[in-house]
Design brief:
Helix content: 40-55%
Largest sheet: 6 strands, parallel
Radius of gyration: 25 Å
Shape: globular
Strand content: 15-25%
Distance between the termini: 85 Å
CATH architecture of the largest domain: 3-Layer(aba) Sandwich
Length: about 425
């Protein structure tokens, strides 16, 4: 088996990604409608059917249960979770501090905006073959840094590590349910789970489809599909390093998409040799081999073509392993997270260097960015008129525009502000 097939730039252009699976969307719609009609009874029924919880088990874990899980862990594991949380918190707080309230003088008064967090956030953390405490921290810690007053987490079949991470993040409630049924419970409210204002976090295709369907009733961060890594490399790249980075992506799950884009025609073969060697002893080789079948290598004639290939992909993660990596990275336009230079391994971003690892996939990086405090904050505008006489010019223009649009009451509402005191 050749781990990575080679395709042309033209073939790459011909296959756009589709963020939401149509069959998954149909299934998710039925589940959401059922939860809307039957509430917590429907949530429990699906949770038991899909193996999230056992029959009769409580679907919601208390903060006390989360603390007990945390306290049961070895000291070094607890310290690891807290260190990771602090790095995520430092970056999220810096993002929050980059936002400022605004006041601008206008004739007769002032306008501006203020910043307000949403009241409730729902965070989703997937649970597949392995626990993902990093996703718990990335979502819930960021919500807290944004100032959200009530944070709920949903994750199926939680283990001690996931529960402990939820305690470190300071969540208010933990719904031990996954899939579309968890998204429905958070979006609509079910039993003791309140209706939230925003839902964030990665998940499988049913979670992604459900987030799409409830968007509008709540806001969501993005439509996150299978995880992706594109490595942009030239002849300076180490094939062993590239291979390990691609395997780190491939071992996520069968649907992961590892990609190599290179200007060095010899690199794909050398990377494939390294992949074969590493797969021989990799514990997660079975999953990685299947995911590698989704991946490919693109050999570009020029660096410009290589950058164009990366922009077409608009990948979740983009590593730049070239000479003058910073200058090359500055020319890339579409990506979720950027990793500049051979030392900036994407896995360091996965595990809490600071920036959030919840990132757009399936080409959606062309129009959205990764999870941040901004997803939990509303920018609300305001206007105050202290001197109606000084504001007469604004009101007069409003009258004129209202008449052009045929809205007579609009015109009169503005015109009554133009009269002398």
């Amino acid at each position: 088996m050749t781990p990575l097939k080679t395709i042309t730039l033209h073939e790459l252009s011909a296959h756009p990604a589709v963020p939401v699976d149509a069959q998954a969307e149909a299934i998710a719609r039925d589940i959401i409608n059922d939860v809307g009609a039957r509430g917590i009874d429907a949530v429990l029924e699906y949770a038991v059917r899909f193996g999230d919880i056992a029959q009769g088990a409580a679907p919601v874990l208390s903060p006390a249960a989360l603390k007990a899980a945390h306290d049961a862990l070895p000291e070094e594991t607890r310290a690891l979770l807290h260190r990771t949380a602090e790095r995520i918190k430092a970056f999220a707080n810096a993002q929050r501090n980059a936002l400022a309230e605004l006041t601008l003088d206008i004739p007769g008064g002032q306008v501006g905006h203020n910043l307000a967090p949403v009241e409730r956030a729902g965070c989703y953390a997937p649970s597949g073959r392995f626990p993902l405490p990093s996703s718990v921290l990335m979502t819930a810690v960021t919500a807290r840094c944004a100032g959200v007053s009530e944070v709920w987490l949903a994750s199926p079949k939680p283990d001690t590590l996931t529960m402990a991470a939820a305690h470190v993040a300071g969540v208010d409630g933990f719904l031990a349910v996954g899939g579309a049924q968890a998204i429905a419970a958070l979006a609509l409210g079910a039993g003791e789970v309140p209706k939230v204002d925003v839902i964030v976090g990665p998940g499988n295709k049913y979670v992604t489809a459900a987030k799409k369907l409830v968007s509008g009733q709540v806001t969501i961060d993005m439509l996150a599909g299978p995880s992706e890594l594109t490595v942009l490399a030239d002849d300076t790249a180490d094939p062993d390093v590239v291979a390990w980075d691609l395997l780190a992506q491939a071992e996520h799950d069968d649907d992961a998409i590892p990609v190599l884009v290179t200007t060095d025609a010899t690199l794909p073969a050398r990377v494939n040799d390294a992949l074969a060697r590493h797969l021989a002893t990799l514990p997660t080789a079975a999953t990685a081999r299947r995911a590698l079948q989704n991946g490919f290598a693109v050999i570009a004639d020029t660096l410009e073509d290589a950058i164009r290939a990366c922009d077409i992909l608009a990948p979740e993660h983009l590593e730049v392993q070239t000479r003058h990596a910073e200058a090359v990275a500055a020319r890339c336009r579409h990506y979720g997270g950027l990793f500049i230079g051979a030392g900036a391994a994407e896995v360091l971003g996965d595990y809490g260097a600071g920036p959030n690892h919840t990132l757009p996939t399936g080409g959606t990086a062309r129009y959205t960015g990764g999870l941040s405090v901004f997803h939990f904050i509303r920018i609300r505008t305001w206007m105050r008129i202290d001197n109606p006489s000084a504001a007469r010019a604004i009101a007069t223009d409003a009258v004129a525009l209202a008449k052009l649009e045929g809205l007579a009451a609009h015109a009169q509402s503005a015109a009554c502000r133009t009269k002398s005191d």
